[in-house]
Amino acid sequence: MILRDCYPGTSSYRIERIGDMNKKAVVVFSGGQDSTTCLFWALKEFDEVIAVTFNYNQKHSLEIDCAKDIAKELGVEHHILDMELLNQLAPNALTRDDIKIEKGEDGELPSTFVEGRNMLFLTFAGVLAKVKGAKHIVTGVCETDFSGYPDCRDVFIKSLNVTLNLAMDYDFVVHTPLMWLDKAQTWEMADKFGKLDYVREKTLTCYNGIIGDGCKECPSCILRNNGLNKYLEDKKEK
Ligand SMILES: [Zn+2]
């Protein structure tokens, strides 16, 4: 089994091509900044790319529309899978109007946390990948801006990679190109692909459902916009 990702302190996002592994990837794709950047990364790294979006009855169905529009524009095969059961299992602020979006205090998880979400998404992405004959799975999870989500951690991704391979008797490689990047570096990556404006204008990350630069007030917008401002300032100084 071979696991590759980006390591701290490296400016290269490129993975080495892996022997005789096939060049087909499934990208877990929400239509947000991170997964759109990962989609561009995958389009550079692999010959064939498939995007998969999970519909778990998000309050902002615009998120699904964003994903659809981007995949269509980039000519990427796109699957939208119904995951409404996630809301039955774990009610959360992303799906329910009666749960406020709150940052977790003192080690508590924020109310936007959905128990087991990444594990389920990656597992279903794995099933789709195998059906489609793809060996690579790409996800935008990141430990740097860690909000305490346990299934965003590198150790979990590596563990799930082993589990998927054993479960399906298949040599998947799970790629996490953003794992060690902060938000400014994620913008830098989009810029390197010549896609900074594209990601800035067309993606939806805002918890209040506003596309592009968003509401500028929710935790997600603050993280995204602080990263963007930092990147643009650093770029100016260079
Ligand atoms: Zn917002």
How do the strands and helices of this protein lay out in sequence?
Elements: E1 24-28, H1 33-45, E2 48-55, H2 62-74, E3 77-82, H3 85-89, H4 117-132, E4 136-138, H5 154-168, E5 173-175, H6 183-192, H7 196-202, H8 219-237
The structure holds zinc ion (ZN).
The site of zinc ion has 10 residues, from helix 8.
GO molecular function: ATP binding; ligase activity, forming carbon-nitrogen bonds; zinc ion binding
EC number: 6.3.4.20
InterPro entries: QueC (IPR018317), Rossmann-like_a/b/a_fold (IPR014729)
Order of helices and strands: EHEHEHHEHEHHH
Q: Could you please say which CATH topology applies here?
A: Rossmann fold
Helix/strand/pairing category: alpha/beta
Shape: globular
Structure description:
The chain is an alpha/beta fold and 238 residues long. The protein has a single domain (24-237), classed as HUPs (Rossmann fold). It contains eight helices and five strands. It has helices spanning 33-45, 62-74, 85-89, 117-132, 154-168, 183-192, 196-202, 219-237, and strands at residues 24-28, 48-55, 77-82, 136-138, 173-175. It has a five-stranded parallel sheet, with helices on both faces. The protein is globular, with a radius of gyration of 17 Å. Residues 206-208, 210, 214-215, 217-218, 220-221 line the site of zinc ion (ZN). The site of zinc ion (ZN) has 10 residues, from α8.
